[in-house]
Design a protein that fits this description.
Layout lengths: L7 H9 L3 H21 L4 H17 L2 H4 L7 H24 L17 H26 L1 H11 L4 H8 L3 H24 L5 H11 L9
Helix pairs in contact: 1-2, 2-3, 2-6, 3-5, 5-6, 6-7, 6-9, 7-9, 8-9
């Protein structure tokens, strides 16, 4: 049974108590996925940066952060809801500005519910960031495993990999296998950090399994 010594909810509790480091951890955890989601939605690089920054400003300025709780659903869902509302508000502002109208302050009251395709897109980008984080850590901790996995993902033949890595075919296979197992374990640990309890963790693993293979050791 997994334990949950450090979760997003604990970071949020500390952030609400004024711990700057905890708030930075929250921002660093979700900002890359927000940015990637906005870019995939067709926003420019500059717009994506501005909107991502505004999302966290709105969290701080509104009462939503204070009300965030596991009983009310995944924090990731709240992040997406704020992101889509800020994005739509900016789009309306841009259109109004072209017509000569003025900008209105963002209202998070009665937020629009993100469309199913938006939720799927955001979750996909969030998983991509988890995978990138796991691979970066693998490169630091097990560089030989990371290199073998990288070559495998580039569809190099076993002979090419063995020659590049100066290892036997058996050693190459072993490195790739161990790398995949290491990444899966790290991904499960990262998913666990966003869960408040074991039941939510199991549900997340089942749900996110459609985006990435989380089975195995």
């Amino acid at each position: 049974m997994p334990t949950f010594p450090s979760t997003i909810w604990q970071d949020l509790d500390r952030a609400r108590n004024g711990e700057a480091a905890a708030w930075t951890a929250v921002v660093n955890r979700y900002r890359p996925a927000i940015h990637s989601f906005l870019r995939s939605a067709g926003r420019s690089e500059a717009d994506a940066e501005d909107i991502a920054q505004d999302v966290f400003l709105q969290m701080v300025r509104s009462s939503l952060l204070e009300g965030a709780h596991p009983r009310r659903g995944k924090f990731r869902s709240l992040v997406l809801a704020i992101t889509t509302n800020v994005m739509r508000h900016k789009l309306r502002d841009d259109r109004a500005e072209k017509r000569g109208g003025g900008k209105k302050p963002v209202s998070l009251e009665g937020q629009d519910v993100p469309a199913p395709e938006e939720e799927e897109s955001f979750d996909r980008e969030w998983v991509k960031r988890l995978v990138a984080s796991a691979l970066e850590e693998l490169a630091k901790r097990r560089p030989s495993y990371h290199e073998a996995l990288r070559l495998s993902l580039e569809n190099q033949s076993q002979a090419q990999m063995a020659q590049t890595l100066h290892k036997s075919a058996a050693q190459v296979n072993n490195h790739v296998h161990r790398a995949r197992m290491w990444v899966r374990r790290r991904l499960r640990a990262l998913v666990r950090e966003s869960c408040a309890d074991a039941e939510t963790y199991r549900e997340e693993l089942a749900y996110l399994g459609k985006y990435v293979d989380l089975d195995g050791e």
